[in-house]
Amino acid sequence: MKNPTDLESRINHILDSNIRIIQYSVYAVGLIGLALVAKSVHIFSKFTSSKAVPREFVTKAVKLQGKVNRIEFSHQHQYPVKQEHQPRYAVRFHVEHIPIVSLWTRKQDKILEKPTSLLKIELAGVNLRTLDGANKWIQLPLESNPIIWFRLYGINSEANLFYASVFLKWPWWKFWKEKDLSLIVLKHGEGVVASYLPISHQVYFNDKYPAYYRKLLYCAIKNKKYN
To answer: Where are the transmembrane segments (predicted)?
Structure first.
C-alpha cells in the first residue's frame, strides 16, 4: 500500500483537527439555504394588501389560506349582450391571510396589538342570481368554519382586490376533496357564470383562468340540462 505523501498527511491532519468546525460549517450552509428558500416562497409572510402579494403569485395561480372576516354582496350593473336584465351579485370576501408558518406572525401581532389588515377577494367567474341562497351555501358554512383556501386567478389593482376561486375547508378525514364554492353555487342553481372581464391596465388575469372559466361554463350548462 502506498504511503501518503507529506502534503496528504498535512491535509488529513488539518481535517482531523477541525472536523467539528467543518461539520458545523456544512450545517450552517444548509440552514442558510433553507432560509433563502423560505424567504423566496414567503412562508413567514403575512399579506395585508394586494400590493404586498408578489405578482408571481397571481401569475402562477398560487393557492393561499385565510380566515374570512366578513362577506359582502356587490350588485352588478353590467350584463352580457341579449341577456335578460336581472340582478346579479358579486361575492366578495374580506380575508385575513394565514402564512404557511403562522406561529411567529400571530404571536408578534398579539404582542404588538396591531389591527389586522384584510385581503379583498372576489369570487372569480360566478355571480349570484339572488341573495336567497347566499345564507345556505356561503354564510352558514363559513360561520361554522371561516378558514378557506383561495386560488389567485386575477387582480384589480385599482380596486385593490383579487379574483380567486374559493375552497371551503373540509374536516381532516376528507382532506383529499376540494369543495369549490363556485361549483357548489352553480350546481344548486343559485348562480350564473359572470361576464368574462377584459384585461386592462387595472385588471389582469393569468393564463390559467380561461381553463377554469370553461370549467364553470361546463358546470352551468350541465346543471341547466339536467335540472
So the answer is: 21-44
Please give the tally of structural domains in the chain: 2
Alpha carbon of 187 to those of 20, 136, 217, 219: distances in Å?
A: 63, 14, 11, 7
Q: 92 and 127: one domain? A: yes
Residue 1 inside a domain? The answer is no
Residues 116, 212 share a domain: yes
The pTM (predicted TM-score) of the whole model is 0.72
> What does the block give as the cell for 125?
367567474
pLDDT in tens, 36-86: 444 444 556 788 887 888 889 999 999 999 999 999 988 875 544 444 556
DSSP H stretches of helix in the chain: 6-17, 19-40, 55-59, 103-112, 132-134, 140-144, 181-187, 209-226
**Do 55 and 19 reside in the same domain of the chain?**
no
Residues 141 and 200 in one domain: yes
Distances in whole angstroms, Cα of residue 87 to Cα of each of 37, 127, 199: 47, 10, 24
